[in-house]
DNA sequence: CATTTTAGTTCAGTGTACTGAAATATCGAG
DNA sequence: CTCGATATTTCAGTACACTGAACTAAAATG
């Protein structure tokens, strides 16, 4: 098993898991990426989110609707500018869905020695960087339409 | 960084990458899971694939159409039973899309010692198992509709 | 052979997420 | 206080994948 196959199996399993989560909660893959952004970068306004995920404002309303209905984000008017709507992740809600996974992963990780955990953490961090870079490349090249007949 | 966060960042990056690939090739997330199945389990008939990914035969025709158009699978009549259509992964085609990723991952993995690679491989395998198990759990529970008002 | 069963495609209908434009509400400048 | 600019929502129209049923072709059964 080399680096390639690592990725293949793992990424298939990850995608399948996300699909299951999405089906369970009634949110799309895009919604989940939006949630990850909100959770990661802190509260975002609808407009900021629209730019980040490259969607029209109208579509973002839909994203926010679904995430709010699933109990994953809160939608609050910005006290400083009441035109704005600030989306923030509901603390713990994300974790609640991923509770089973989080627990299982914690348990799994605990079975490795601290040095081993260090190696794994290092690999994951670097893998994430690689994925981000490759995603960026794909998106840029992807601006030429895929060749169809 | 503990086991939970491993998963979060990594899985977000994986999903984003898959979305980019899908957009580039004009295939859906489901199509990609189908491709992974075909590549992993060897050639499958349309009917077998339908059972595996829980889709109607009609939908599978669409999956096969898109994968074939993207040059990722071949569609050939089964010589032993000419009603059947066998879907097989086009060798290298998958790799061509994932070439950049594969190369980068190979390079990344090579930077670890054999023992470290062993640890990583072990962790990945177990993580895949955990993901599959959690996906299964979600899908089963998910048969109760998500609670909506 | 005739008949039934099985495999896959085609097609009409449905659901859903996206775009683009109009509507609503609030801010900031003069 | 008025007016133009900005943020979000609403809404009609569009695109697309899925279901279920009808259809075509080939195999198995008697």
Give the helices and strands, then pairings.
2 copies of one chain form a homodimer.
Chain A: H1 3-25, H2 29-41, E1 44-45, H3 46-53, H4 57-69, E2 73-78, E3 81-89, H5 93-97, H6 99-110, H7 114-141
Antiparallel strand pairs in A: 1-3, 2-3
Chain B binds a DNA duplex (30 and 30 nucleotides) through residues 28, 30, 45-47, 55-64, 78, 81-85.
Describe this protein's structure.
- The structure is a homodimer of 149-residue chains.
- The first copy, chain A, has 149 residues and is mostly helical.
- The first copy, chain A, has a domain at 3-90: Orthogonal Bundle (Arc Repressor Mutant, subunit A), CATH 1.10.10.10.
- Helices cover 68% and strands 11% of the residues of chain A.
- The first copy, chain A, is built from 7 helices and 3 strands, in the order H-H-E-H-H-E-E-H-H-H.
- Chain A has helices at residues 3-25, 29-41, 46-53, 57-69, 93-97, 99-110, 114-141, and strands at 44-45, 73-78, 81-89.
- In chain A, strands 1-3-2 form a 3-stranded antiparallel sheet.
- In chain A, strand 2 and strand 3 form a beta hairpin.
- In chain A, helix 2 (29-41) packs across helix 4 (57-69) and helix 3 packs across helix 4 (57-69).
- The longest helix of chain A has 28 residues, at 114-141.
- Chain A is globular.
- The termini of chain A are far apart.
- Chains A and B meet through helix 1, helix 2, helix 6 and helix 7 of A and helix 1, helix 2, helix 6 and helix 7 of B.
- Chain B binds a DNA duplex (30 and 30 nucleotides) through helix 4 and strand 3.
- Chains A, B: GO terms for molecular function: DNA binding; DNA-binding transcription factor activity.
- Chains A, B: Keywords: DNA-binding.
- Chains A, B: It comes from Saccharothrix carnea.
- Chains A, B: Residues 1-129 form the HTH marR-type domain.
